[in-house]
Write a structure and sequence with these properties.
This protein is an alpha/beta fold. It has three domains: 163 residues, Rossmann fold, CATH 3.40.50; 197 residues, P-loop containing nucleotide triphosphate hydrolases (Rossmann fold, 3-Layer(aba) Sandwich); 79 residues, GMP Synthetase, Chain A, domain 3. The chain contains 13 helices and 17 strands. The strands form four sheets. Strands 2-3-1-4-5-6 form a six-stranded mixed β-sheet. α9 links the parallel β13 and β14. The protein is flat, with a radius of gyration of 31 Å. It holds the Pfam family KH_dom-like. Associates with the 50S ribosomal subunit.
Length: 495
Amino acid sequence: MSFTLAIVGRPNVGKSTLFNRLVGRRLALVDDQPGVTRDLREGDAKLGPIKFTIIDTAGLEEATDESLQGRMRMLTERAVDMADVCLFMIDARSGVLPADRVFAEILRKKSARVILVANKAEGNAGETGYYDAFSLGLGEPIRLSGEHGEGMIDLQEVLMPISKEFESRQIEPETDVVIEALDDDDDGEEITFSKSRPLQLSVVGRPNAGKSTLINQILGEDRMLTGPEAGITRDSISINHEWDGVPMRLWDTAGMRKKAKVQEKLEKLSVSDGLRAVKFSEVVVILLDAEIPFEQQDLRIADLAEREGRAVVVAVNKWDIENEKQEKLKDIREKFTRLLPQLRGAPLVTISAKTGRGMDRLHAAILQAHKIWNRRISTSALNRWLIDMLDAHPPPAPGGRRIRLRYMTQVKTRPPSFVIMCSHPDLLPTSYSRYLVNGMREDFDMPGTPIRVFMRSQSDKNPYADKKEKKVTKLNKHLEGRYRKSAGRGVKPKK
């Protein structure tokens, strides 16, 4: 990318709407109520031939530094310091408010390049606000409508010389990190993580479990908005970062409450955004609160990650304030084994996102889970294993009909998926499939990762019976034709 542009302004002036238009996708949550955006969200933007990085920020509000709005403002000010260009947006329909003048003065001191935009300027309603914007002393404003796409050509003309100026920057070459694991299409090749192909990692959990604090600890800076209030994070924010030499794409998600408690439209959008992040991930870190681990909602979130087929790591946060550590750990392990049998053997790591304790063990557990998630087993090893499992515990014979399991092979990884050819797959009980899955976890060292086993029908009928029948039919027709020709000449054909 040639440069970084940060969109700033008061709440509800249309920053996220313009952000979504420039990145070409609905990445940021958009709603009529002010203050929807709280964290910084980055995206790859394109406007005509110009490519750049864009940052969506929280609305600027006058508040004390200790309040939530004050912490949001401080985060926005950090984005202004990070960006090469600052796009200051006002609402043309509301006109220039006193808060706009205060923030314009701050931007004039902080940023070398400020582009003034009068948004919602379509029609006559924004005419007065557009001319009022000249009084801010930031040059000629651009008339824009982020929702309808008006004025994008004018914005492109302003950004073009800036883009040419930054094109001379040198781009550092990517360094690849090789992890011993397998991919769907690699069939034995090693996975290479790089900036263009990072490890996709999402952090999910209930509200106030410490997800944003954990992301900040990984990044080594206060990038995500945190605080004692529950439910601060609304968007699913993705950040590219190299953690201990491994390029990763980190997803911070909104806290997921019980479905019955989610009433507001905005919270529903936040939860949907979090579910989408889980689907995009390769490894999901389920973050638990050490004080109240494995509540019903934690179990639902873990079950969701398993059903989506993602590699799972369970992290117990706030371990630094736990007094009876050994007793608590024993209790957590017992509950984990009993309440989540579908994730038996998944890594369980105790951490403190605030102090950084246990982060090295969490990093190792994530890489190990990803490696197992990509594991491929040879067909010969699988079938030798299947014979031993059948000898130890043959499948049942419901109604006197014997079920034969003949052949097994792995059809894909991510997660490991297997097909077993058998007779009467519809009669095979679910308990026997679980017996096979648990055996694979133990014998092929695949703890915790979701394993898929599909039964396909293979009939007891001779596969060559149809070919033989067709051959006999063809011969009979041939002999019948010869007989008719011979009968017409009065000659009895030889048999």
